[in-house]
Structure formats: structure tokens, C-alpha cells
Amino acid sequence: MTKTIYVATALLILSASAFAQKVANYSSGKRGTAAYEHFSFWTKGSKRVEIIYSYGKNDKTQPAQYLGKTTYKGKPGFKVGLPGNYQLYVIPEGINLRVIGPTKKYNKLFAWEYEGPVNGIGTFCDVCADDEKAAMQLVKAYFIH
């Protein structure tokens, strides 16, 4: 009986993790200001699900489209499309993401953004990458490799 419960529990945990949703959040600028920008890279199970881009003081949100793997100046990365046929290169740079526009006037460094309680206030984000290393691992595994 104990062995059956152990096997059933193990199968339940494995099947739940196979469908687990994860997100890596990156931002540039200070939240609540006009200069703030944010990307959320969502996965579920073994697949890329979506990319969400938000910006500005009021977090205006736009869908972003994964446009495939690419290289930029010899570095591996991927391209993201925003409304208006605007394309961005997303290139890992250490634990951060360098995001570059087609004219190179847009060139920003996005850092992992913690989503959770601060000083005991707020809600813990179960699906968020735990730290900058986990976030970068998720981005590389699902969007570059």
C-alpha cells in the first residue's frame, strides 16, 4: 500500500511539472515612470507560450511575437515583433538581456525583475523564475536553443 501511494504521488508530481507554467520577467527603467519597460517570457511544459511587452507609467501592455532565433554581432539571441512591424533583437548579456532595435537607436539593458512580496507585503509569484540565473536559463532554453 505504501509503495502504491509513493508511486502515485511521484506520478502526480511528474505530470504536474510537465505542464508547469513559468515566466521570466525583465525590465528597464523604474516601475511607475514613463521610462519603464517590461518583457514577460512565458512557457508551459516544454513550449514557449507567449511574450508580453508593457511600458510606461501605467504599464500599457502589447502582445509581442516570437520571430525566431537569430544572431547579432555573432551572439546568439532571438527576435521579437511588436505591433507596427517593429522588430527587436534580444541578446543575453551575462544575467541580463540586451534589447536592440533595427536602427540601433533603441539599445537597452533589461535586468531580471523580482515579482513578489517586498518587506512582507505582496503576493508570492509561484510561476516566476526564482532568480536572475533561473530566468536566464528559462530564456535560453525556450527562446534560443
Reconstruct the topology from this structure.
Layout: H1 2-18, E1 21-28, E2 37-44, E3 47-55, E4 60-72, E5 75-82, E6 86-93, E7 96-100, E8 107-112, H2 132-144
Antiparallel strand pairs: 1-2, 1-8, 2-3, 3-4, 4-5, 5-6, 6-7, 7-8
Any overview of this molecule?
This protein has 145 residues and is an alpha+beta fold. The protein has one domain. 21% of the residues lie in helices and 45% in strands. The protein has two helices and eight strands. It has helices spanning 2-18, 132-144; strands spanning 21-28, 37-44, 47-55, 60-72, 75-82, 86-93, 96-100, 107-112. Strands 1-2-3-4-5-6-7-8 form an eight-stranded antiparallel beta barrel. Strand 2 and strand 3 (47-55) form a beta hairpin. The N and C termini lie far apart (43 Å). The relative contact order is 0.17. Residues 4-17 have low confidence and may be disordered.
Number of helices: 2
| Element-level helix/strand string | HEEEEEEEEH
Count of DSSP strands: 8
Structural class: alpha+beta
Helix content: 10-25%
Query: Which regions are unreliable across 5 or more consecutive residues at pLDDT < 50?
Result: 4-17
**Strand order across the biggest sheet?**
1-2-3-4-5-6-7-8
- The overall pLDDT, averaged over residues, is 88
**Shape assignment:** globular
**Span from first to last CA?**
43 Å
Radius of gyration: 18 Å
Biggest pleated sheet: 8 strands, antiparallel, barrel
Number of domains: 1
Proportion of residues in extended strands: 35-45%
